Predict the 3D structure of the following.
Amino acid sequence: MSLFEQVSQGIIEAMKARDKEKLEALRNLKKVMLEARSDKGAGSELTDEESLKLISKLVKQGRDSAEIFDTQNRKDLYEQEIAQVRVLETYLPVKLTDEELTAAVKAIIAKTGATSLKDMGRVIGAASKELAGKAEGRDIADKVKALLA
């Protein structure tokens, strides 16, 4: 079952359970997925990798919004955003631990043959593709910089 189908099934389950927050988050996600699908071309399907990128983007935007609401003392909107982020995170793969990320980046550095900070862009590009959804770009960049320095 593709990620798009899982989201559609989740919407049905949320409606049956009358889970308003989950339903709202999944409907928003499906809308974004449909828009991305139509951008690609009529009738084309989104791959799971593309779907994961969309979900990661929405999670990041939700966290950023929640942070803003928190600084403005808007606890009601903060809670709403965080609840939606939690729902979306259930569709993402498990995040890598620091040790797993270090091992993965070391393997990518060895694979690309990088030796100095000059090769950082190439390594980050490869790592971002390979670790999509499993680690945030900022964490990948920090780890690559630390290992190449």
